[in-house]
Amino acid sequence: MSRLSDSTRYETARTKAETLMEALPWIQRYAGSTMVFKYGGNAMVNDDLRRAFAQDIVFLRHVGIRPVVVHGGGPQISTMLDSLGIHSEFRDGLRVTSEAAMSVIRMVLTGQVGRELVGLINAHGPYAVGMSGEDAGLLQARRVRTGSDGAPLDLGLVGTVTRVNTAAVEQLLDIGKIPVIASVAPELAETDDDAAAGLGALTGQVLNVNADTAAAEVAVALGAEKFVALTDVEGLYANWPDRSSLISSLTAGELREMLPALEAGMIPKMRAALRAVEGGVPRASIVDGRSPHSSLLEIFTDTGIGTEVAPDGEDRA
Ligand SMILES: Nc1ncnc2c1ncn2[C@@H]1O[C@H](COP(=O)(O)OP(=O)(O)O)[C@@H](O)[C@H]1O
Ligand SMILES: CC(=O)N[C@@H](CCC(=O)OP(=O)(O)O)C(=O)O
């Protein structure tokens, strides 16, 4: 049997009470607001972390916040493509997507990664509803034709979201559900001829959308109060991989200047954060999904964690 001394017990209890009190103004401020969480495949490191993320989302729901989860699954897709012998490569941080790859991507995101997240959240009650951009006309996308430098770029069946049907998500939030969204989206026809040949305005093709990009569009369309992207790094580094260069906050303008120098997966992630803030989301954060309960710490502590992007002319609030 182990026993804590009275003073240790008192100190521990006091620290817990202080933590709860630190959360109070944030709970008051955010009650009733919508927050979009992008859960990246690289942040889904182990069962404990995935469970902690699900707990955080349920916690948020129970303090009156309306959480929406948009998930990725890049590493899980790569594992499945490898095991099936389907080659895949990234350009500009995006996966070049063939028809064969697309059907695997759709299967992994909606049938595997999304299902698992829904199950973890629903271990706490009947909250999560899994959907993809195809369900209830949630998303529409057009093919990506240019790279981040503006030059022509052919990535195959890769899309960028052009429309979000917010009603599909709002209706679920209104009845207390937690939408868990996979980032595949029906393709919008580019010309009237395409439209005539396809399903009205849609071509009948499904596109692979980077989950950061999809999450940012969902956040903007919903008028979210916050966009939080969980990844496998502490935040944005000014001089990657110099670990002493972690940025705790920056403005949209500062981020815009950094974008051309970013590498790999950080390109779509920081473009998404910028898009969210430029689209009217007051704050976008990049947090470390490998650290348990990073979502709660970001939202309910005074300093937050990770990197926060604020609109031009504003500092961290
Ligand atoms: N400036 C930077 N700051 C932080 N990470 C960076 C930077 N440049 C490149 N990276 C890389 O980007 C990765 C995150 O992107 P990605 O692997 O696509 O995440 P996710 O799967 O969560 O979407 C980091 O693990 C890191 O290797
Ligand atoms: C076009 C594109 O790159 N799509 C991504 C979709 C999944 C994703 O974004 O997953 P993460 O968030 O885990 O990186 C892909 O195929 O990997």
Structure description:
This protein is an alpha/beta fold. It has a single domain, classed as Carbamate kinase, CATH 3.40.1160.10. It is 41% helix and 22% strand. It has helices at 6-30, 47-62, 74-83, 99-122, 166-174, 192-197, 211-222, 252-258, 266-278, 294-300, and strands at 34-39, 66-71, 90-91, 94-95, 128-132, 139-143, 158-164, 178-182, 184-188, 202-209, 226-231, 249-251, 283-288, 307-310. It has an eight-stranded mixed beta sheet with strand order 5-8-2-1-11-13-14-12, with helices on both faces. Strands 6-7-10-9 form a four-stranded mixed beta sheet. The longest helix is centred in the first third of the chain and has 25 residues, at 6-30. It is globular. The structure holds adenosine-5'-diphosphate and N-acetyl-L-glutamyl 5-phosphate.
